[in-house]
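This is your field. Have a critical look at both lines of this record:
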Amino acid sequence: MPQKQKPKSWTELKQAGNECFKTGQYGDATSLYSQAIRELEKSNKKNPEDLAILYSNRAASYLKDGNCSECVKDCDTSLQLFPFNVKSLLRRAAACEALERYRHAYIDYKTALQIDCNIAAAHDGTNRMTKALTEADGPSWREKLPPIPTVPLSVREKLAQQAAGGAPKANLAPQQNGIKKPDKPAPSDKDMKKAQALKEEGNSLVKKGEHKKAIEKYSQSLKLNPNEITTYTNRALCYLSVKQYRDAVRDCSEALRMDGGSVKALYRRAQAHKELKDLKACVDDLNLLLKVEPKNTAALKLLQEAQKKK
């Protein structure tokens, strides 16, 4: 009797799937990745990261075949197993874009840019989603977005090193001067509510032109919730108004540590750099901003002014 063939290991199945994917055999690749997932889930050596990569690979096959709903499901599973995996974020963003789920696509593209602000596909996707959402929801489209997750610094460094084959990745967020800041612990629900109330008090004071009082409210808010990007950018606006330009730079840099593509943080830091006569830093920030929003008229105008003075 012929010997029963031993089932292939999950690694062999994954490799076979990769080969099919490279040659455009996406249906076969999907089947092989599915077998690899089953083998790995049965295995005693089940590693969440390995499983996440298999789901992400199968998601890529679904995406190529136009099965965007299954792609999103696999990316969801992959990101539960391996949070902030850039490939899964970009694949889910592309699938959501194809499904016209533009808000979700925008969030994923922006999250990917926190991990590496040089991903061209994420910049291009952000630009397309900005245009689509502006057309759909008008100028206040940002108010309808779900919150953008904050990628912890430790995660960004780990993922960047993996992407660079173990070599440390430079320029994760613009102009951090090599400073590594520890991640801040997540605040309690009670602290978050209090922080939000203080932030709103600050916003009301800004509308009245009381910038110094607003700075106090934003500072109190940040003590309770130091992970809120818009509180930093709002306080930076106040610092600009009272001519405390170095404080504005510091707040914008902190916001950019959390979201390297924050348009407000880049613009306000550029304004502060201009006032501090650091025109090179001003132009660098505006160029980064214009990668995210190429038609930002305020940024284009400020860039012209800064270049005339150089």
The chain has 15 helices and no strands. Confidence is low (pLDDT under 50) at residues 166-183. The CA atoms of residues 279 and 309 lie 8 Å apart.
